[in-house]
Amino acid sequence: MKKAVFFLLIFFTLGCPLFSQSHVSESWLSFGAGYGNSFEQFSRENTRFRSYVASPGFIFGGYRFFDNSNLGIFADGFFAVPVRDSLGNSDKSDVGFQTGLIIGPGYRIALSDRLAFRATAGLTLFLASFVYSEHDPAHGTVEYETMSIDFGPAADIGFRYRIGRAVFLSAGSIFTANFGRLMWMDATFKEMQTQKSSIGWERNFFSFGIRPYITVGFNLLYIW
């Protein structure tokens, strides 16, 4: 959990400068909801696993364009709670959350006075944390706490519709393709009152994610 809090602090540290407004820039700040769909595969102990995770949650982010340019920088973040998790033939109930950060260059093009297309490409850090219990015949009840960080390229493509001078609606989707995963795992053996920790890279890992969303945004140029 401490690692997750630290990860969120990184987002606000990197993202807040994007949202601050100056007289030579235009900044957009938006909040909304999204629904994540993640497909992944990896290997453990010579076994190949394929997994699908569905996760509704919140989206927040911002763009900043300099000197009235169509080019700028952006940062997207999200927080989601998995509601469906399938992993191989394993059947277990767990509790967890996901959070992510995407940052990179962005581009916009006006299609009309109110409608604009925007597209971005950047790098993503994707964090997931789960807590679950399983019964081990040799050790009794084992409680697992895992945290993983995925790395890879990402894109955010969508449309912005201005409904007022300072307010707009936005709809689109975040696409991710992660090629690396660093995994932490703590296993607590209840009956033995012992704990075992491990850390390492997931083998043969790849994931692809699609997260459609809709947000309400504000053009900070007309707010302050």
Structure description:
The structure is a single chain. This protein is mainly beta and about 220 residues long. The protein has a domain of about 150 residues: Porin (Beta Barrel). The chain is built from one helix and eleven strands, in the order H-E-E-E-E-E-E-E-E-E-E-E. The longest helix is centred in the first third of the chain and has 18 residues.
Q: Profile the largest sheet.
A: 8 strands, antiparallel, barrel
For the record, give the distance between the C-alpha atoms at the N and C termini, rounded to a whole number: 36 Å
Radius of gyration: 20 Å
Helix percent reads under 10%
Structural class: mainly beta
Task: Quickly list its features.
single chain; 224 residues; mainly beta; Porin; eight-stranded antiparallel barrel; 1 helix; 11 strands; elongated
Summarize the structure.
By secondary structure, this protein is mainly beta. The protein is 8% helix and 73% strand. The protein is built from one helix and eleven strands; from the N terminus they run H-E-E-E-E-E-E-E-E-E-E-E.
List the helices and strands and how they pair.
Layout: H1 2-19, E1 25-44, E2 47-66, E3 71-80, E4 84-87, E5 94-110, E6 115-136, E7 140-162, E8 167-178, E9 180-189, E10 194-201, E11 203-219
Antiparallel strand pairs: 1-2, 1-11, 2-3, 2-4, 3-5, 5-6, 6-7, 7-8, 7-9, 8-11, 9-10
